[in-house]
């Protein structure tokens, strides 16, 4: 029982983290058609900001958390302003290549300016403790990850459904030109989407730093690959799909770890992708994706 | 109200609009007629700024808006209901109307306007919380026009409001357009359905192949029957 509960919590926590990062990719993709592979470097900027602040004498974990989220949101907006805005109306492959370029440049900046080696960051270690609920011992970090992700997604849903800017982001995911016809500034909608995307990455970064206790230049890269997969499972561009896809990916991975005998544990990733490929054969547009109708004349 | 001088729109080597000039006076309903591919929608998109003209001058209320961004043109009091309606299908009817009022800062007035349109179009009221994509074509057109009016424009551009709609619905839509004119709104209506457009028009421009062929009162088209048939048909 204890073991099953622990694994369930594992799956939920992994799933929540994938969901956060996948949502960040999806919110930008849905309105700009940009697959932002530099999303991992937003997590990186966030993590290195905390590292630098700690090195300069910051001791408050609360300030570190706020800094991580703010730095990520700022980095995302800055990437858009500097790198993506000039290629906004270029073909989508240009945006994709630009994102890879940003990713490479920023990763190399971390290596050149700080160090290619992992750097220890202990300021958030306090988040990672054992909590005891009667007979059960659970990781505080996993519980917080689940709760914070849930609240964040709830806040995002409220924002997208209640505020004018949120409505504009949802509308822009289908028809950007008409959103501009409402007098809503395109730059503002896009900057907001990037800021949301960055803030989500920053929250994920907090949990990554707390778990690893260190930062390295390629910190966010593998996570973004996973998040990309989560988006594909859920249906690229669908926000609900990204969240659901992230959760499903967490369950598939942990489920395989549990189901596979120890000596076959190395097959976990391969089998994960086999399951995903099978899923996509069955539903090529993803779980919640929609085939785009090509009907009315473009304006 | 609106004055367009020597407008040229090109897509690559293809000229969609050649040296087009037109005027819309305050409180007028002006019809821009012509066959498919005449450059009517390109003209509208150049007026809203969604396409950048190669040359020409667009003046709204004495202000040169030729180099002004779309968003700021809407704020200056011009708006358009695009061809094919382009309602936000994934948003509810109510959310569509709210986005239409995005530039306004008077929540009370916005609520009053929403209530006014819901009273005017009861079907929108019934479907207020439903995704706008579930509306019929005619209902979507009513929503699209209501959404445009939510910004309280001085000048409304209507691009093919009759497109794809049943004749009975088209008559209803144009009845409503007539009411808007009676309320004092200035309108530029682009249409292929000349008969309906001419019901309330003060003046008419006829374009074909991107060039202005005729301008004058609606009666002038009836006089030149050949012209009517040539460029507009039945």
From TrEMBL, chain A:
Pfam families: BPD_transp_2 (PF02653). This is Amino acid/amide ABC transporter membrane protein 1 (HAAT family). It comes from the Bacteria. It is found in: Cell membrane. The chain crosses the membrane at residues 20-38, 50-76, 96-115, 136-160, 189-211, 223-252. The keyword Membrane applies. Belongs to the binding-protein-dependent transport system permease family. LivHM subfamily. InterPro entries: ABC_transp_permease, BCAA_transport_permease. One of its GO terms (cellular component) is plasma membrane. One of its GO terms (molecular function) is transmembrane transporter activity. One of its GO terms (biological process) is amino acid transport. Keywords: Amino-acid transport, Cell membrane, Membrane, Transmembrane, Transmembrane helix, Transport. It is a multi-pass membrane protein. It comes from Rhizobium loti (Mesorhizobium loti).
UniProtKB/TrEMBL annotation, chain B:
The keyword Nucleotide-binding applies. GO terms for biological process: L-amino acid transport. Keywords: Amino-acid transport, ATP-binding, Nucleotide-binding, Transport. Residues 2-234 form the ABC transporter domain. It comes from the Bacteria. CDD domains: ABC_TM1139_LivF_branched (cd03224). GO terms for molecular function: ATP binding; ATP hydrolysis activity; branched-chain amino acid transmembrane transporter activity. PANTHER family: HIGH-AFFINITY BRANCHED-CHAIN AMINO ACID TRANSPORT ATP-BINDING PROTEIN LIVF (PTHR43820). Belongs to the ABC transporter superfamily. This is Amino acid/amide ABC transporter ATP-binding protein 2 (HAAT family). It comes from Rhizobium loti.
């Amino acid at each position: 029982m204890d073991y099953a509960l622990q694994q369930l919590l594992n799956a939920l926590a992994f799933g929540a983290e994938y969901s956060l990062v996948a949502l960040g990719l999806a919110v930008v993709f849905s309105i700009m058609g940009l697959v932002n592979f530099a999303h991992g470097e937003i997590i990186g900027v966030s993590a290195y900001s905390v590292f630098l602040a700690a090195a300069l004498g910051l001791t408050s974990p609360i300030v570190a958390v706020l800094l991580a989220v703010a730095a990520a949101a700022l980095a995302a907006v800055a990437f858009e302003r500097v790198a993506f805005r000039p290629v906004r109306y270029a073909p989508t492959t240009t945006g994709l290549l630009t994102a890879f370029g940003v990713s490479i440049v920023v990763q190399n900046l971390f290596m050149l300016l700080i160090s290619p080696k992992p750097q220890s960051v202990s300021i958030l270690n306090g988040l990672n403790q054992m909590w005891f609920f009667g007979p059960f011992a659970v990781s505080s970090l996993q519980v917080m990850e689940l709760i914070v992700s849930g609240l964040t997604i709830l806040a995002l849903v409220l924002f997208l459904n209640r505020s004018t800017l949120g409505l504009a982001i949802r509308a822009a995911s289908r028809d950007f030109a008409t959103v501009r016809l409402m007098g809503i500034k395109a730059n503002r909608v896009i900057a907001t989407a990037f800021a949301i995307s960055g803030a989500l990455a920053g929250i994920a970064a907090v949990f990554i730093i707390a778990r690893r206790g260190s930062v390295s230049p390629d910190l966010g890269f593998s996570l973004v690959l996973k998040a990309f997969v989560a988006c594909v499972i859920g249906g690229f561009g669908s926000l609900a799909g990204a969240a659901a896809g992230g959760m499903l990916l967490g369950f598939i991975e942990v489920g395989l770890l549990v189901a596979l005998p120890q000596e076959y544990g190395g097959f976990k990733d391969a089998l994960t992708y086999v399951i995903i490929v099978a899923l996509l054969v069955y539903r090529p547009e993803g779980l919640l994706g929609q085939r785009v109708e090509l009907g009315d004349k473009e304006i | 109200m609106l004055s367009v001088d020597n407008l040229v729109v090109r897509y690559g080597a293809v000229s969609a609009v050649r040296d087009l000039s037109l005027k819309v006076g305050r409180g007028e309903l002006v019809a821009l007629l012509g066959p498919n591919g005449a450059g009517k929608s390109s003209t509208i998109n150049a007026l809203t700024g969604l396409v950048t003209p190669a040359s020409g001058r667009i003046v709204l209320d004495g202000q040169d808006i030729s180099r002004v961004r779309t968003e700021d043109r809407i704020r200056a009091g011009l708006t358009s209901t695009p061809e094919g309606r382009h309602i936000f299908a994934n948003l509810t009817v109510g959310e569509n109307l709210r986005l239409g009022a995005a530039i306004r800062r008077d929540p009370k007035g916005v609520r009053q306007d929403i209530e006014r349109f819901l009273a005017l179009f009861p079907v929108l009221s019934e479907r207020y919380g439903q995704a706008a994509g579930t509306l019929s074509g005619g209902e979507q057109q009513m929503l699209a026009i209501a959404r445009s009016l939510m910004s309280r424009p001085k000048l409304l551009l209507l691009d093919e409001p009759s497109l794809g709609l049943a004749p009975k619905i088209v008559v209803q839509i144009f009845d409503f357009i007539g009411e808007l004119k009676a309320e004092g709104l200035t309108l530029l209506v682009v249409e292929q359905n000349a008969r309906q457009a001419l019901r309330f028009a003060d003046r008419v421009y006829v374009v074909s192949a991107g060039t202005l062929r005729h301008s004058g009162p609606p009666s002038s088209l009836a006089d030149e029957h050949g012209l009517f048939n040539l460029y507009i048909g039945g």
